Amino acid sequence: MTYFNVTHISLVLRTCLKLNRGFVTHASIKHSFNINFQRLFGYVPICSRLIHTSKSNGQTQKDGITLLPSPQEVTLILRKNEFNKEFASGSVKSYDSNQLASNDPIEDTRCEGQCKLTPGLLMGVFDGHGGPACAQVVSKRLLDYVAAAMLPTDTINAILKEPQGALVDTYNDKIELINDLKTIYDNSFKEFLLELARTPRDDSNVYTAMEKGVLQLDSDLSREVIEPFYSNGVINQKTLSVALSGAVVCISYIDGPHLYVANIGDCNAVLGTLTDDNEWIAKKITKEHNSENFDELKRIWNEHPDEERKTVIRRDRLLGELAPLRSMGDYRYKWSTELLTKVAVPCVGDKAIPANYHTPPYLTAKPDIFYHRLSPKDKFLIIASDGLWDMLTPLQAVKLVGEHMKGKVFYNPLKLPKKNIQLGDINELLLHRKESLKSKPKDRNAATHLIRHAIGGTEYGIDHSRLAHLLSLTPDVSRMFRDDITVTIAYFDSEFLRQCPA
């Protein structure tokens, strides 16, 4: 155990500033809006079962002195939510995922699954704000919406005649929605299927399908509040909490050598590519929708009158409040003032309507969709919430995963390359393995490896004291230093990609 007193918070702050990573100010400012909105609206539970991500700071008290978690306890905290899945065929060999909370409850979610009626693999990271409700609901529903939009009309009609349940076989799904929401959501999904059956479309166009799935689900989040209100005057607190909170989203669809990524907000997808010279290159697939994206600023300015130019973006935020400039949910920035007055103000007060709210909608959930044809040089894809990218650059993350790939082979038993091998050759193999074991990573899961380095990494390696300090902070303090972190890493089968026709 490491001993420290109440001044440890200031020590952590000085450490963070010394390392000049810039995430202290960013995280504290980012969450100033979220905390206020949660207090304003209150937390409405929408799940009966939830992945165990509530932050446990691992602190103990002895004679009035707080004890930091030991290296073993730190590792237990970091590995609590890690997951790995391997595949026997296809372009994706396996994937690693993990989450580390800063908020309590965590506002990030993730979801991965194999499409049942098409060959693709869907993977998504969802970063919530204003509470976890929207991210939780979107992670449970979006993959099915996208999978449905890719199906031909004949298949849609067959599903309507004989419902098959979920269209995606999900992995490690530990979120369970409460029953009354399930009924509402099942009805909405059926309506979506009926619309797909009625509407002529090109079901082979993945771009169109991904955009259609995202926009339809976002529209349903609103409709599920508005329709009951106009029909019987009832406001459902659960569906309202989902609509008023928000989530930024990054989902990928991988089918053989074809990689599609849809992005809404400030999560990112980064491709790790190994050159012929064995050097790692980070290919950033996505572009953030925030104030650092000038094209996004111009889009918003052009959608509103010139007299709003000084108010529509203030302090690098939409209407001075929201950092991402696109998101799902967040209907405080999409509904009309009249509708907000009728639906949101009675529940959360006048602050439900942002200042300078003149020409809504100010926000869209329309995704940017990117395509990349995978080659044998593309080794893995990292999808992560901004909690990771606040602390690591894309190239740092790619190099860390690349080094981890090289070192993790030593978790497997030594296999001799041939049957009739000489003892001298075996001895050379063992000596080489002994030397190479020095690069064996502490964590078998690459997502955990990234999170460990993001929080505790320095130019000299992992600083356990720094790592233990940051993991020991209570959620109200932790938010000032870092955000929730969610990471998914998909590994590609180079031999499969080599054999794919051009």
From TrEMBL:
Q: Does the keyword Metal-binding apply?
A: yes
Keyword Transmembrane helix in annotation: no
Q: List the InterPro entries.
A: PP2C (IPR015655), PP2C_BS (IPR000222), PPM-type-like_dom_sf (IPR036457), PPM-type_phosphatase-like_dom (IPR001932)
Which keywords, in A-to-Z order, does the entry hold?
Hydrolase, Metal-binding, Protein phosphatase, Pyruvate
Query: What GO cellular component is one of the record's annotations?
Result: mitochondrion
The family this protein is said to belong to: Belongs to the PP2C family.
Give the protein's recorded name: [Pyruvate dehydrogenase [acetyl-transferring]]-phosphatase 1, mitochondrial
Record organism: Papilio xuthus (Asian swallowtail butterfly)
